[in-house]
Specification:
20% strand; BirA Bifunctional Protein, domain 2; 15 helices; single chain; Rossmann fold; 37% helix
């Protein structure tokens, strides 16, 4: 690359063939699974009013405080590139009154998100996530459904996920407030032993100290009071039912009473999926319940639960997996002379409209160059059209594996190719009819 050429911004990456095939295969697999489970596709704007994230995700969260791409538009409005998917989805549900119809609202999304954080392998400033949201039900069954769908998707694409599970209580219940008072007192008593950045969280977001990556803080928190010892009866019962339902459908999990999620809207069920082979940054996604998010955005009480999985992280965890290959074209059409090029273009178009893969030369190469391109493409057949074929209304169909060839009527080409594609003896001249 020339020294003065433009490059992608730091923390972004281009999705190019052949890796893009894996991206398409993974997202296609996810779409099919989500839709089989009753979830429908939504797509929210790439940017939202900043307040959606300040009120929804939480001003004291690291995402809002340090990672958002926020800018002022020409009208003086503060806008933010979306750093996560749940708050925009809930905003859209409320704005368009989807919650006034049948509940729950079950939707999924696939798309890019943006955070200003230090780029690492598999972690970008523009990153892709796929996720689902089930909004309107606080039933433990929907918790189990959401978790099982994420677990199944990861399992089906060979991630071999480890599920980490916890309950962090409910804001509307006495257990969360009571626990936070106990935790804050304990943290203040041990503040001198913690890393400086985590001391600041004691006043603003004490639960987030459990998410610290500082060794000093991690060591101190080994003896901190745990939320699971302070859950109210309702939260305890809810969590027990979620675990029992996961047991019923064979979803294994590890309980971690120190697991918290990085966004302030989480309540009760919280979970994370980790994968091997990714080093210390081994999370491929997670989620949880967010029963107070709707009220934070000015809506009515509307419980919800969802997850987000990182496409980039999954592909990194499955880089040895053999994803579906679109395969070579069935036919590479070769034009002998300018008069044949228009016919070849029509021929290729007809093949594609018949759901057959076909390619042709668009570089104006001669026959030798076109035949080389046909071989390189991996096509099974070359469909050759010259003056003789044009005059007779025929095509010379050449088997690029054994070199045999035969003339077939132009109108029968689709039938012949489709027939030969579906048989083990495709391409044998004696079987072309």
């Amino acid at each position: 690359m020339a020294s003065n050429a433009f490059r992608a911004p730091k923390g972004t990456n281009d999705i190019l063939p052949p890796t893009s095939r894996d991206w398409v295969s993974l997202t296609g697999h996810a779409r099919a699974l989500f839709e089989r489970s009753g979830y429908e596709y939504v797509d929210t704007p790439m940017f939202e009013h900043t307040e959606v994230f300040e009120r929804g995700v939480g001003e004291t969260s690291e995402v809002v405080g340090k990672q958002m791409y926020t800018f002022e538009d020409m009208g003086g409005r503060s806008l933010t590139l979306r750093p996560e998917g749940t708050a925009p989805v809930v905003r859209a549900v409320l704005e368009h009154n989807l919650h006034r119809a049948a509940l729950p609202v079950k939707v999924y999304y696939i798309g890019p998100f943006f955070r200003q954080e230090r780029p690492q392998k598999g972690r970008y400033r523009q990153f892709f996530q796929l996720g689902i949201e089930a909004i309107g039900s606080d039933d433990p069954f929907v918790d189990a459904e959401v978790i099982e769908i994420a677990w199944r998707l990861l399992s089906e694409v060979d991630v071999q996920p480890r599920l980490i599970l916890n309950s962090i209580g409910h804001r509307a219940a006495s257990c969360r407030d009571g626990y936070l008072e106990t935790l804050v007192q304990w943290l203040k008593a041990h503040a001198d032993e913690m890393a400086p950045p985590d001391r600041e969280r004691i006043a603003t977001n004490p639960l987030r100290t459990f998410d610290s990556k500082e060794e000093k803080t991690i060591a101190v928190l080994e003896n901190a009071p745990l939320i699971t010892d302070h859950l109210c009866d309702d939260c305890t019962s809810h969590f027990a039912q979620v675990r029992s339902l996961l047991d019923d459908v064979g979803v294994s999990y590890d309980l971690d009473p120190r697991l918290v999620r990085g966004l302030d809207y989480y309540t009760r069920t919280a979970f994370e999926f980790v994968a091997g082979g990714l080093g210390s940054q081994n999370a491929v996604g997670g989620g949880g319940r967010y029963d107070g998010l709707s009220e934070s955005l000015g809506g009515p009480p509307l419980p919800g639960i969802g997850f987000a999985l990182g496409v980039d992280r999954i592909l990194l965890a499955t880089e040895d997996r053999k994803w579906a290959d679109p395969g070579p074209p069935h036919v590479f059409a070769v034009a002998l002379g300018d008069d044949a090029r228009r016919d070849v273009f029509e021929l290729v178009t007809d093949l594609r409209r018949a759901f057959l893969k076909a390619e042709f030369d668009v570089m104006g190469r001669g026959m030798k160059g076109q035949m080389k391109d046909a071989d390189r493409s991996g096509a099974r057949w070359a469909a050759i059209v010259g003056a003789d074929e044009l005059a007779a209304g025929e095509v010379t169909l050449k088997d690029l594996k054994n070199g045999d060839q035969v003339r077939v009527e132009r109108d029968r080409l689709i039938e012949v190719v489709r027939d030969q594609k579906d048989t083990d003896g495709a391409g044998e001249p004696g079987r072309l009819r």
